[in-house]
Amino acid sequence: METYNFWITGSHILEIPDLKGNVEKECTSCLYSMVFLGILGVHQFYLRRNHHAFFLWATLGGIAGIGWLRDLFYIPTYVAAANESEEYMSELNELKSKKKVPDQGVCRWAASVALGYIFAILMYAVLWSDHLNERYVNTIIVLAHTFGALGVYIPNNEGHKAVSLGWCILGAYATLPLTIMYGEDYLFYGPLVSSSVASYKMYWKNEQSTQGFCIRALYVLAISIIYLGLLSTAIYYNATITTKGETVPLREAVQNFFNSKAWKETKETLSQLYNYYTHHGWRALWEEFLTAFDPQGEAHAYEVLGLNKSVTLKELKATYKSLALKYHPDKEKQEAKKKEMADKFMEIQKAYDILLKLKKERTQKQEL
Known about the structure:
This protein is mainly α. It folds into 4 domains: 1-99, no CATH class; 100-210, no CATH class; 260-293, no CATH class; 296-368, DnaJ domain (Helix Hairpins, Orthogonal Bundle), CATH 1.10.287. It has helices at 21-37, 42-46, 50-58, 60-64, 66-83, 86-98, 106-127, 134-156, 165-173, 176-182, 189-200, 213-238, 250-258, 261-280, 282-293, 298-305, 313-326, 335-367, and strands spanning 3-7, 13-17, 161-162, 203-204, 240-243, 246-249. A hairpin with a 2-residue loop joins strand 5 (240-243) and strand 6 (246-249). The longest helix has 33 residues, at 335-367. Residues 300-368 form the J domain. It is found in: Membrane.
């Protein structure tokens, strides 16, 4: 009988029979979601591992795809745990009786340190300002360590293992003096110590979460919105743009953009499009949109030949012949001007071909 290796802890391997029936279907569905949406953690959300799902998308697939690759080997384990299969639960209960404190595991430890550091840096970047006095700087450092502890808490509370948020915060606060004395470069030690403390204070959960899809989705959505809010704010206030050799803060560049002539013209255009839509509907707006962007090059072709849309086919041909004769490169003796006339001649030729083709197509449609 074929067997899968199921890793419950970093050092304990157990084998169970090949998955059949409903479990096999879940395993297949999980693999499909992992292949196509794995970087977003969809496969973990499917298996009711909400914190794991959040970690994957928040760190681009588990620290640039590393977590996603690891999941390839652990899908059968997660499926068995989600279904609480008889074999899995038997081995798990045996392990619980042998180890009162569950092993944290290297991967869970590394994930909690990484996410904790990201959270701490984001909070510090959002709140930091050169104009704050020392008292507020210390407050910011405390908040950064607290948020870092939350980042440690998330990966350590998944599956059948958990840890108290209080222990994570206590571990993070142990390194507060270092960061206060030596600056933000020492923020990393907060999540490092916090995760190490968590490894000694973990406990077995009696049962997994039985929350419904909507509750779980709202929970993951809520923490994701908070995370994205901090990330976007940190980028807005700390990122810079270099243009023409000068470095400009992103927030100033954004403000300058909204004060620019280009934005005012864009805003005016959007307003006109909205008004056009309210009076004429989506179909007319789409046609107007295509006309404005001129995907066929018709408007530009008329401009090159100096004509308008009411021109007849006979007038089009006559104008083309006149311009082609005028700008034919063979008429020019000087090499410098000859190239310029050749480019103009090619532009005229291209414009004529576009308009001729469009007029013939429209004539054929009218005849039908």
